[in-house]
Amino acid sequence: MKKKSKDKVILIDSDIACMDTATLRKLFDDFRNANRMLRLQKKKLLEEKNALKKWGEDLSLLNELNKAVVATLDADRIVHTAHTNLKEIVHHDILSVILFKQKKLWLLSGIKLDNEETAKIKSFILSSLKEIADITDEETYKMAVKFLKREKAGDSYKKIDHDSIKRQSPNRVLFPMEIGDNRIGAIQLIRYSGDQFTEHEYNIVSMVGSTLTLALRNSEIHREVQELATIDSLTGLYNKRYFLDILNKEFKSTQRYQTPVSLIMIDLDNFKLINDKFGHQAGDMVLKNIASLLTKSLREIDIPTRYGGDEAALILPETVIEQAFFVAKRIKRLIEEHPIRIGEDSIKVTASFGISSCPNSMIKTAEEMITAADKALYEAKKFGRNRIASCEDIFMQNNAYLGPLVF
C-alpha cells in the first residue's frame, strides 16, 4: 500500500502495515540499536586504522632512529641523535640517559634552564633512579647538559614548577638499560605538561631504550679497547705509541698553522738505586705516584705519557717554551715536596727535565723535536740532576734570562 505525505510517497511493506504498534516499536528499537552498533563498530575500526597508521609512521621513524644511533661509536652523539629523533615520535620535555659505571648523566631539554633548575632536575632524576639502582653519592655523577631550543616567557626563560612535577610522578617513563643480568644504565622521559604517557608511547620508549642499550654498550667496549691500546697499564698514563701519534699530529698542525706546541721529557733521578734498595714493587709504586702528580698538575688538553721505563713525556698544545718552563718548574717542585711512603720508609724523589718547542726553524720533524728535548734532558742530568734544561735560550718579556739550565 502507499501512504501519501504531501509530495513524498512512502512505500510500506504490507506485512509491516499489518503489525500492531508494540511490534513496530520493538522493530524500530532493534533497527536503532543495530545502527548504533554499526556506528560504534565503524568508529572502532577507524580508530584501529588510525592506530595502525600511527604505528606504521612511528616504526618508520624508529627505523631511521636505529640507523642513526648505530652509525656512531661516540656516546655523546648516540644520546643526542636518539633525542633528536625521539622527539618526533614521543612528546617530552626532558630526556635523561645515565650510565652507572661511568657515572655520567646526559640531560637534554627543549627548555632553557638556569643552574638552579638544572641542579634540581639532576637531583630529581637521580632520586627517581634509586628504585632501580644503588645511587649513594649523587655528587660523583658528571652531567652533560644540552638545550635544543629556547622557549621564552616574556623576558625570562620559562620556569618549571618542580614541586608540581614531583606530584605528577606518573607523568614520566623510566626504563632500565640491561644487557642480560647486567644493568648498565637507564633512560627516562619526563613530561612537564600535557597528558600522561600512553601505552603506545611506553612501547616506543622501550624500543628506543633497547637500541640505546646496545649502542652505548658498543661505545663503552670501543672506549675500553681504545684505552687498552693507548694506556700504560702500570701508571695509567698514555703509552709511547699514543704519544708518537699525537706528537706527529700536533707537529703537523704547528707546521701548517704556526700554533705553538711544547714537549717536556722527564727522567727520574737515580731510579735504579730505588729499585736496588727497595725492590721493583717500590719502584712501581714510585712511578704510579709520579704519574698521579703529573695528571693532577696538567690541563685537560695536555697529554701525559710514559715514554719508557722511568721516563715520561708531556705534550703541551698551544704552549710556548716560556710557558712550558713554568709547567716543568711546577712539576719539579711537586715531586720534590711529595716524598713517597714505602712501608716505614719515605723515599725522596727528584727528576730532571728537558724542553723543546715549536715552531722552531732548527726543528723540521716530530722526531727532531724529541731529539732536542732528549738532548736538553741529557744536559740537565750532566750538570747535576734535579734541573730543567731547554733546547734554546729562554727569555721573558723583561729580558730576564731563564735558561738553558735552571737550577
How many domains, as an integer?
A: 2
What general outline do the C-alpha atoms trace? elongated
Please indicate the percent range of residues in DSSP E strands (runs of 2 or more): 15-25%
Number of H- or I-type helical stretches: 11
Strand neighbour order, sheet with most strands: 11-12-10-15-16-17
Rg computed from alpha carbons, rounded to a whole number of angstroms: 36 Å
CATH superfamily of the largest domain: Reverse transcriptase/Diguanylate cyclase domain
User: What CATH architecture of the largest domain do you see?
Assistant: 2-Layer Sandwich
Secondary-structure-based class equals alpha+beta
Largest sheet: 6 strands, mixed
Average predicted local confidence, pLDDT: 81
Task: Give the N-terminus to C-terminus distance in angstroms.
Answer: 128 Å
Structure summary, number of beta strands: 17
Instruction: Give the low-pLDDT segments.
Output: 150-159, 164-170, 395-401
Short description, anyone?
With 407 residues, the chain is α+β, with helices and mostly antiparallel strands. It is 48% helix and 21% strand.
Walk me through this protein's architecture.
The protein is α+β, with helices and mostly antiparallel strands and 407 residues long. The protein folds into two domains: 69-229, Beta-Lactamase; 240-406, Alpha-Beta Plaits (2-Layer Sandwich). It is built from eleven helices and 17 strands. Strands 11-12-10-15-16-17 form a six-stranded mixed β-sheet, with helices on both faces. Strand 6 and strand 7 (156-157) form a beta hairpin. It is elongated, with a radius of gyration of 36 Å. The N and C termini lie far apart (128 Å). The model is unreliable at 150-159, 164-170 and 395-401 (pLDDT under 50).
